[in-house]
Amino acid sequence: MSEVHPIILFDGECVLCSANAQFILTHDKARRYRLAPMQGEVGAALFRRHGVDPDDPDTILLIDGDRVLRDSDAVLSIYTGLGWPWRIAGLALLVPRWMRDPVYRWVARNRYRIFGRRETCWIPSDEHADRIM
After folding, report:
1. In what order do the strands lie in the sheet with 7-10?
2. Is the pLDDT of residue 18 over 60?
3. Distance separating alpha carbons of residues 18 and 51, to the nearest angstrom
4. CA 100 from centroid of its chain's CA atoms
5. What helix, strand, coil percent values describe the chain, rounded to 5?
6. 23-46 burial, b for 16+ CB within 10 Å, e for fewer?
7. How many CB atoms lie within 10 A of CB 80?
8. pLDDT tens column, 29-88
9. Helices 97-115 and 15-27: crossing angle, nearest 10°?
């Protein structure tokens, strides 16, 4: 690919994370984002490179060039990048990170208990397979 696409690193076995990945693929009309589950070779390597254990992740990462976002900053940046009406989520950036991130981290720590865990990693449809790393 000649152009650079932001990469979203996520937990492919987490029901919430997989649903979010599917939502992003469906609503990213510009086909801007690429996604990499931590269970894959590329995702695991990128998680490690940025200091997150892929066997015990505590966050989603958004890698956009030299910029790496995590926690609520990553989620809000992703949704802002989807365009209207999803970019309205960017208003949450008005809430200080010290207030947003504890909520994000609580959900991240409890995601399997609250939302469940897939037996296998989520597989994208053929329409979006080229966007998964």
Report:
1. 34-37, 7-10, 61-64, 67-70
2. yes
3. 22
4. 16
5. 50, 15, 40
6. ebbeebeeebbbbbbbbbeebbeb
7. 16
8. 999 999 999 888 999 999 999 988 888 888 899 999 889 999 999 999 999 999 899 999
9. 110
The length of the chain in residues reads 133
Q: Please report the pLDDT score of residue 58 as a whole number.
A: 82
What pTM was computed for the model? 0.87
- Cβ atoms of residues 132 and 18 within 8 Å: no
Contact criterion met (CB below 8 Å) for 57 and 38? yes
**HSE of 132 in the Cβ direction (CA atoms, 13 Å)?**
22
- Look at strands 61-64 and 7-10 and give their pairing: antiparallel
pLDDT on residue 105: 92
Q: Where is 45: in which H helix or E strand? A: helix 41-49
Contacts of residue 117, defined as CB under 8 A and 6 or more positions apart, other chains included, come to: 13, 14, 15
